[in-house]
Amino acid sequence: MKYRSAIVPFLLSTTLMTAAFAADVPEGTQLAADQTFTYRVLDEFSSFDPQVVEDVNGSEVVRDLFEGLYNQNADGEIVPGVALSHTVSEDNMTYTFTLRDDARWSDGKPVTAGDFVYAWQRAVNPELASPYAWYMELMSIQNGAAIIAGEKPITDLGVSAPDDHTLVVQLSQPLPYFAKMVTHATTFPSPKWVIEEHGQEWTRPGNIVSNGAYVLTEHVPKERSVRERNEMYWDNDKTVLERVVTLVIGDEAQGLTRWRAGEVDKTDIPSGQYPTLKEEFPDQAYALPRLCNYYMTFNLKDGPEPFQDVRVRQALSYALDRDVIVDRVLQGGQFPAYTFTPGATDGFEVPEVDYANMTQADRDAKAKELLAEAGYGPDGDTLSFTYLYNTSESHQQIAIVASQMWKQKLGVEVTLENQEWKVFLETRGNQNFELARGAWCGDYNEASTFLDLLTSQSGYNDGKYSNARVDELMAEAKSSQDASPLYFDVEAILSQDMPVIPIYHASTNMMLSDQIMGWPVNNVEQNWYAKDLYKVAE
Amino acid sequence: MFNYTLRRLLTVIPTLLVLIVFSFYLMRLAPGGPFTSEKPLPPAVMQNVLERYGMDQPLYVQLWTYIKNIVFHFDFGPSFAQKDRTVNDVIAQGFPVTLTYGFWSAVFVLVLGIPLGIVAALRHNSIWDYTMTGLAIFSQIFPNFVLAPILVLLFTLSWGLLPGGGWNGGQWEYIVMPAIALGTSYMAGVARLTRGSMLEVLNAPFILTARAKGLPERVIIWRHALKPALLPTLTYMGPVFVYMITGSVFIDVFFSTGGIGQDFIDGAYSRDYSMLLGLAILYSLLTFALNLMLDLLYAWIDPKVRSSL
């Protein structure tokens, strides 16, 4: 017997009011004559190919050009895209998506379930060698891992199209948040006939065929890209913005200058400038919670002996005044962190970990006590270690402030070492460090995207922290209908074991012209869709 | 002269080979690779990626394939960072941009620098001379990364005359600021060099002879003094010109021109080996071609050089 998941009634009801997730223009709004939205990106995109793209800015473009099974609304909740709804089998291992019949590619062909099957097989195809193949593995699609490893043919992937409007996905293990994962670019459909005709050049303007609200009409690498309304898009009537232009501006300060000159509608705020800009442009400077954390990781495998003592780790964590780091050093609306998972994560309520509720004075006193117990401090040995970070001004500021706090409060001697990005990654990945900087951004809006990192088998666990109970809880969470209590327990263990020192949870800082409306300020993944935006007259 | 040119051209091949081999191995000495990232790829995915780019092969095989592809297919390989494009694509798109603003920048340097230097030398120790020298020193203390923001502040933010950046197919409004920002400090250098060598030449015995023959001053300057006085400037402009047309990282990043200067730095940071190597080859070919042109130009200007070729 199959039952409809809790999400389905919700989805069915929202399909009836499609206006709620296209550009929602209140009556009487004076729209700007020129509906062009121009924004700054830092770098050239890695790709416009949904199965290949791996950077945040590239994914933003791909989300406009292509449409997956589901989209996100302004609050980050899933809403119908090409799929109208889905059902889940009783064992939570089979997902059946029903696709809308009015979805079209920009060349007029209908979007079918077969286009998804092709795209998903493509994503795991060793021949394409997509760096994002791991995302399909993360989605636990049956045989995904074996296909990536070259042990099975791509046709064995657990995805099939019984008819043009039905897509069936077979999982290798239950995954409560599976439906949320299909808003990711890697899972978007791709046009087989175009890829076969143009090969690697299929994403060039002129060649590209896409099924999203926009089509790519111009692309000058490292300078600009232009996407324009796709007349074939099923919800085209509701699209308001006519053109979306990206300008590559490598220099943050120059981005701000060009925002001031009115050349771009949106740009990032250079580090440390948020408070002054907020004062100057109260309605246009934003600091929004973001699904990223910032932490320091102890090397528990080859690190210095004292790090094996949990009291030392706790003392170092307690002695860091997060409020000073966030309010005085970074000044970008970040949130002091005492847990690994950001509070903004969907369904995750920040648990009451003990040390978060203490005053900083209490934490400092406790830190001294703990360190003395461990045999370090004024009456014991001097604790000394090296803190490794990658070269960047804000990382350096945090490193300096932290080392000063440790020195003044605990008498700890810290040597600071910075390395170029890739050298740093290699050093940290090979456990050639003592204490190192770390940061993580969620791949999907669920706590496991963060907490999985601290399980023993995680390839991203650079500190090599290992706690059997954490592994157990995280495994259990994978198949649990309500994993929140389990995540609570994991965070509680982490706050005791302190394998990492959480510093802050990040924010997105941006200047956004007050002419641009509909920005999803409550979407912590900052997954925005140009079709939901509109520009009002000055 | 023909033999000389041919000889020089033939030396390019071994030079390039040494450069390729050396750079190829040197780049790989740096820790990390093109696919090292904050979220390390799972081993199976990494294996597929390495296979796709032939990076699972021993280094000497990769090197041999690389050279073979260049020689037989003129293919400089894929870009690891811009996954939809090859190095050929990237250079074909970015180099014309850099060449354009680099060329106009060089024109700006020469058209302004040389006359300034000559005037200063001819009006030695006059108000002209002091103004020019002052101006030159003033310009030289404005490297491009100081000058560019000032230009944008004035022309874009204050007066709204020019766009703050971009390229837009190379319309003139987009070229002005990059060309001036890139050229100004060199222009000062050229002016000072020209002034110095002009002064030296004007005191040389052959100019005294010309004067003694009673030639008019204009003829002395144009026919006799100018050519030898420009030699040091030419020597100076050779490498500067290569630098200009291969793009300044700063100008590319600051003005978002889309030129190739940026790719060199980005390539280094992202360990985009084929991109770096492709650019290194392009740079050395340009350096070589310009040096050869300069040498031929010397020979045309200076009979002493000509006879020694």
In the CATH hierarchy, the third-tier topology of the largest domain in chain B is known as: MetI-like fold
Say how many strands of chain B there are.
0
Q: How much helix, percentage-wise, in residues of chain B?
A: over 70%
Radius of gyration of chain A: 24 Å
CATH class descriptor name of the largest domain in chain B: Mainly Alpha
* CATH evolutionary superfamily of the largest domain in chain B: MetI-like
* Average of pLDDT of chain A: 91
- The number of helical elements of chain B comes to 13
**In percent terms, what proportion of residues of chain A is strand?**
15-25%
Question: What composes the largest sheet of chain B?
Answer: none
Structural class of chain B: mainly alpha
Could you tell me the number of beta strands of chain A? 20
**End-to-end span of chain A in angstroms?**
57 Å
Instruction: Kindly report the greatest chain-chain contact and the residue count on each side.
Output: A-B, 54 and 55 residues
Q: What's the number of structural domains of chain B?
A: 2
Mean pLDDT of chain B: 89
* Portion of residues within helices of chain A: 25-40%
CATH architecture of the largest domain in chain B: Orthogonal Bundle
SSE string of chain B: HHHHHHHHHHHHH
Structural class of chain A: alpha+beta
What form of chain A results from the Cα inertia axes?
globular
